[in-house]
Amino acid sequence: MVGAMLTTRVCTITDHLDALWPLLRAHRNELATHPEIMPLEPQTDVYRELEQRGKLLSLVLEHEGEIVGYSVNVISHNLHYGPLKVCQNDVIFVSSSWRSEGGGRQLISATEIAARELGCKMLLLHAKPGTRLDEILPSYGYAVQDVIHSRVL
After folding, report:
1. What is the mean pLDDT of residues 11-40?
2. 87-133 pLDDT, tens per residue?
3. d(CA 8, CA 71)
């Protein structure tokens, strides 16, 4: 795979859900912190509504037409800082076999460019503590904005 050509493109993610199932399963199996309460059931109607309203920015990472990663983000104005338009990721994932090929960096960079083109002033990326994404984001210029704690109820 070394030197393999990866491409990114903005897309309508609901048009690609069938092709994404293997990656969605891999994503959940690798990163779901509480799988017993986190069934893999994407809310396609909500994604579709956000797409129709221009509030969803989705990109895919491809190798020879096969999707090997995705970045799905919500575009909105910050509730507290009203003029601040942000792009906040819902999910970002690259197949483990493409991470060492620069797929993650390429997908993040393409997401930044697309968000900037939509007028966003900030990209917010969530990363699980201790993951490779969490480790590399500071080297890309990202800093901790907030820390989210969770508790199963």
Report:
1. 95
2. 999 999 999 999 988 999 999 999 999 999 999 999 999 999 999 99
3. 10
The answer to whether the beta carbons of residues 11 and 58 sit under 8 Å apart is: yes
CATH of 7-33+41-140, one of 2.40.30.170, 3.30.460.10, 3.55.40.20, 3.40.630.30: 3.40.630.30
CA-CA distance, 147 to 25, in Å (whole number)?
26
Contact 124, 145 (CB under 8 A): yes
The backbone torsions φ and ψ at residue 112, rounded to the nearest 5 degrees and listed phi first, read -60, -45
Place of tokens 């994604």: 47
Query: Which tokens hold the place of 112?
Result: 């930044």
Domain boundaries, the chain: 7-33+41-140
pLDDT, mean of residues 37-43: 96
Q: Write the DSSP string, 85-106.
A: EEEEEEEEEE-HHHHTTTHHHH
